[in-house]
From TrEMBL:
Belongs to the SLC41A transporter family. InterPro entries: CBS_dom (IPR000644), CBS_dom_sf (IPR046342), Mg_transptr_MgtE_intracell_dom (IPR006668), MgtE_N_sf (IPR038076), MgtE_transporter (IPR006669), SLC41_membr_dom (IPR006667), SLC41_membr_dom_sf (IPR036739). It is found in: Cell membrane; Membrane. Gene3D superfamilies: CBS-domain, MgtE N-terminal domain-like, SLC41 divalent cation transporters, integral membrane domain. Keywords: CBS domain, Cell membrane, Magnesium, Membrane, Metal-binding, Transmembrane, Transmembrane helix, Transport. It is a multi-pass membrane protein. Homodimer. Its main location: membrane. Acts as a magnesium transporter. Residues 142-204, 205-261 form the CBS domain. This is Magnesium transporter MgtE. It comes from Kocuria atrinae. The chain crosses the membrane at residues 289-309, 363-385, 391-415, 427-450. Signal peptide: none annotated.
Length: 453
């Protein structure tokens, strides 16, 4: 059994990395032998592709399999490319069908085909079942190997089935109950089976099953599994036949990846899908440059607005001092609203049909924020630049906050309605829209209050 993993200290990492760079293999071997598997994973994530393969080869076979399963799929792919064919075949055969499917998605087609061909027939068939579902569906992340029982069996007979399936099942704590045609009729916990009289029928022990359909989005099923605090959730086809099981650790892994994707896209970048230090600089550039170009193109609208109101700025140059403040406040307000609604969508708190309720709530929030910030802007700008300038800044902040919060709250709902990732669609649009329209509002208010032409 693996020792409890402690965070790897900076000194430990430096010592092992130094030993690797000096090719002091005895020291590397002794260091990783003393590390729990979790620490070895953290170490491998920090090494270069070449050094990672070198250190991995020093692991005993049983630990190598455990470590390989914990690595992100892109790192698994690099190891597969760097290892000998016989090592790769053994590792691949030792993975669960869902983990194999994730790795296959990363590998070149020729390598994946060869690895699948070399699997035993039963393992190849199970893996093919998982690969047959859409890429982002829960069927692609379930494990088709699970222990089941039947309503007419007794607790004692069910325990025998559980013992028989210990080696192949990913979990035995939640046991799906199926009828003779493999339709899911309920679930029973291992504790209930062990605690019951051996002659008690499973029908008296089982409870209603919360299940997922194999073709539904993986994130939705995983969030439901985590929200219901389930150790495992049965996965069924459209005829309610059991096809696999989703364990809570896989559900949490799906949610962690989804959260990472959302956070990356909200900040205007593509998700890395691998640890930062193991990510090539070229990949970091590719992940960021597209969104920077999109935002740069969107910023040309702001330039166009400034050109239109150039004469207004020439008459009152002090107005240009507040432009960064106003568009920055508008962008931040819109992004706050968009982030809140994107999160609420992910949790199922709101749906596209709630657009009117969301619009009204964000309008009220925007007005409240606008009045607070506008009052502060009026006082501060009024003291420094006079009451008329203070009034312009105060009213503009009130208007921009109201507009930005409303638009920011609506964009994720519109994105979900048109089948676009809310995190991708919302922030670039909000930044462009609020910058341009905020300046238009600003200059119209300034013209009205200051009497400019």
């Amino acid at each position: 059994m693996d020792r409890k993993a402690e965070p790897v200290t900076g000194r430990q990492l430096q010592d092992v990395e130094s030993a690797v760079s000096k090719r002091d293999f005895d020291r590397v071997t002794s260091s990783i032998d003393a590390m729990p598997s979790g620490q070895v994973v953290e170490l491998l994530e920090r090494l270069s592709v070449r050094d990672r393969a070198l250190v991995y080869r020093m692991l005993p076979k049983d630990r190598a399999s455990v470590v390989f399963e914990r690595l992100d799929a892109p790192l698994q792919k690099e190891l597969v490319v760097g290892l000998q064919d016989e090592d790769v075949a053994a590792i691949f055969a030792g993975l669960t069908p869902d983990d194999r499917a994730r790795l296959v998605d990363e590998l070149p087609a020729t390598v994946a085909t060869r690895l699948l061909r070399d699997l035993p027939d039963d393992e190849r068939e199970l893996t093919s079942v998982v690969l047959g579902y859409p890429e982002r569906s829960i069927g692609r992340r379930m494990n088709p190997e699970c222990v089941t029982t039947h309503p007419h069996l007794t607790a004692g007979e069910s325990l025998q089935r559980i013992r028989h399936g210990l080696q192949r099942a990913e979990t035995i704590y939640t046991i799906p109950v199926t009828d003779d045609s493999r339709k899911l009729v309920g679930v029973v916990g291992l504790r209930q089976v062990m605690g019951a009289d051996p002659e008690t029928p499973v029908a008296e022990l089982m409870s209603e099953a919360d299940s997922a359909t194999a073709t539904e989005p993986a994130e939705e099923a995983a969030r439901r599994c985590a929200g219901l605090r389930l150790l495992a959730m049965p996965v069924v086809d459209h005829e309610d036949r059991l096809v696999g099981i989703l364990t809570v650790d896989d559900a949490l892994d799906i949610l962690e990846n989804a959260e990472s994707e959302d956070q990356a896209r909200i900040s205007g970048s593509e998700p890395l899908r691998r640890p930062y230090l193991s990510t090539p600089v070229r990949t970091l550039v590719q992940a960021r440059v597209v969104w920077l170009l999109v935002l740069a193109i969107g910023a040309t609208l702001t330039v166009q607005v400034l050109e239109v109101f150039e004469s207004t700025l020439e008459q009152m140059v002090v107005l240009s001092v507040f432009i960064p403040l106003l568009i920055g406040t508008g962008g931040n307000t819109g992004n706050q609203a968009a982030t809140s609604i994107t999160r609420a969508l992910a949790l199922g708190d709101v749906r596209p049909r709630d657009v009117a309720k969301v619009a009204l709530r964000e309008l009220r929030v925007g007005v409240s924020l606008g009045l607070l910030l506008g009052a502060a802007g009026f006082v501060i700008a009024g003291i420094i630049y006079g009451a008329s300038i203070g009034a312009v800044i105060g009213l503009t902040l009130a208007a921009i906050c109201t507009l930005a919060a409303t638009v920011g709250g609506l964009m994720p709902l519109i994105a979900r309605a048109i089948k676009v990732d809310p995190a991708v669609f919302s922030n670039p649009f909000i930044t462009t829209f609020v910058d341009a329209t905020g300046l238009v509002v600003y200059f119209f208010i300034a013209r009205a209050i200051l009497g400019l032409g």
